[in-house]
Amino acid sequence: MAVTARRGRTSTGTYNVNGSTLDEINRSIQRLGPVDPNDRRRYSGVCRCTIDIQLGRRDVQFETTPGSSPLEVTATVTGGSVTNMCAITMPRLRSESALSSAARQEWRRFLAAVETHEEGHVDSYFPEAETIARALDGMSATGTGRNENAARRAAAAALNTLIESRYSESQLVAIANANAAAYDRGNRHGATQGAVLNVTIT
């Protein structure tokens, strides 16, 4: 077996915006839109991702060093999973009834572009899970003890410390945020993907 990367569940939530024109709707988005975790500015949509490492008892193998004194055991990661789960937040217009046909068409085009941008975030996160899974696969640490059980406990503790030193919760958040920042730089927060509302349409 090996550590595997998995695509977790992607959920989509909304926040309400109002307006009888596209300009009013855009102003509502600027007031109410979700805050980007990197630059702390509000945008029309956001995708937040968490990276979860799951290792069970059966995902670690132990090997005793022959002739060691005190008894030495090596713990090695041989299974488990790294899962990325994402939550997308999108704007939701309470009513389109006040919009002209052209404005309604532009609003729907804009929403589709925002969704494309946020789904792009989901896709960009998965390689991070793959990278971490490869790094964890075969990672090992040793421990010593007066008997087999004590040495195994020491090896397991050393392995947990090693993993935590590289992939603590705060480090996983930083990895996800850095990925999001790089993706947004590449398309100017979706501007090059059409995620800009044309407020001149009336």
Task: Write up what this structure looks like.
This protein is an alpha+beta fold and about 200 residues long. The protein has one domain (about 5-190). It is built from four helices and six strands, in the order βαββββαβαα. A three-stranded mixed β-sheet has the order 1-5-2. Strands 3-4-6 form a three-stranded antiparallel β-sheet. A hairpin with a 6-residue loop joins strand 3 and strand 4 (about 70-75). Helix 2 packs across helix 4. The longest helix has about 35 residues, at about 100-135. The protein is rod-shaped and about 85 Å long. The mean pLDDT is about 95.
Oligomeric description of these chains: single chain
Approximate strand percentage: 25-35%
Query: Spans with pLDDT under 50 lasting ≥5 residues?
Result: none
Percent helix: 40-55%
- Number of H/I helices: 4
Distance between the termini: 59 Å
Gyration radius (Cα, Å) is 24 Å
Number of domains: 1
Q: What's the total number of strands?
A: 6
- Gross morphology is rod-shaped
Order of helices and strands: EHEEEEHEHH
Q: State the strand order across the main sheet.
A: 1-5-2
The average pLDDT is 97
**How would you classify the helix and strand content by structural class?**
alpha+beta
